[in-house]
Design brief:
The chain is mainly alpha-helical. About 85% of the residues lie in helices and about 0% in strands.
C-alpha cells in the first residue's frame, strides 16, 4: 500500500514546532526529575572513592567506599522516593527501582564469579563499567544523554586501565566521577 503524504510548508512548520515543544517539555521533565541528582550524588561518591584508592591504603579506601556506597544508596532511595511523589509516575519509577535492584544482584554475582573482589582496582572498575552499562540501558529506555555518559565513562575506564594503570584511580576520580557529576549538573541547570 503506497500512500503519498504531502504536507504544505505551513503544515511542516507546525509539525516541526510541535516536535521542538515536546523536546523542550521532555528536557524540563528530566531536569526537574531525580536523574540529575542521582548523577551528582554518584559522581561525588566516585570522585571520593577513586581518590581514596589512589592515595590511601586499601583498607582505608575500602572503608571509604563502603561508607560512601551506603550513603549513596540511601540518597538514591530518598531522591527516587521524593521525585516519584512529585512526578507521579509510580509504574515507571517502580520499574526503574526494580531495574537497579536486578542490576545490583546480577553485578554482585558477576563480581563473585569473576573474583573481581580479589583486586581493589579491578573490583572498582568492574562495578564502574557495570554501572555504566546500567546508564546505557537507562539512556536507551528513558533519555539518551545517560547512554552517552555510560559509553564515555566506559571508554575512559578501559583506556585508563589499559594505558595508565598506575593512575587509573586518579583518572576515574577526575574523569569518571567528574563526568557523572558535571553531566548531572549540566542537565539540571541547562534543561530547566
Amino acid at each position: 500500500m503506497n500512500s503519498d503524504v504531502h504536507l504544505s510548508r505551513d503544515e511542516a512548520q507546525v509539525s516541526l514546532e510541535t516536535i521542538a515543544r515536546i523536546q523542550r517539555q521532555t528536557r524540563r521533565t528530566v531536569a526537574h526529575g531525580g536523574g540529575p541528582w542521582h548523577m551528582m550524588v554518584w559522581g561525588t561518591i566516585w570522585f571520593l572513592g577513586f581518590l581514596a584508592n589512589q592515595f590511601l591504603t586499601p583498607e582505608q579506601a575500602g572503608m571509604i567506599w563502603t561508607i560512601m556506597a551506603g550513603l549513596g544508596m540511601i540518597a538514591s532511595f530518598v531522591i527516587g522516593w521524593w521525585y516519584s511523589k512529585k512526578m507521579r509516575r509510580p509504574l515507571q519509577d517502580a520499574r526503574i527501582g526494580l531495574f537497579w535492584l536486578a542490576w545490583f544482584v546480577n553485578s554482585s554475582v558477576i563480581v563473585y564469579l569473576t573474583k573481581a573482589y580479589q583486586d581493589a582496582t579491578v573490583l572498582n572498575l568492574t562495578i564502574a563499567v557495570l554501572a555504566m552499562f546500567g546508564y546505557v540501558v537507562m539512556g536507551l529506555w528513558l533519555w539518551q544523554p545517560l547512554a552517552w555518559v555510560g559509553i564515555a565513562v566506559t571508554i575512559i575506564a578501559t583506556l585508563a586501565y589499559t594505558w595508565m594503570p598506575e593512575y587509573v584511580n586518579l583518572i576515574m576520580a577526575l574523569l569518571g566521577g567528574g563526568t557523572l557529576f558535571f553531566s548531572g549538573l549540566y542537565i539540571y541547570r541547562s534543561w530547566r
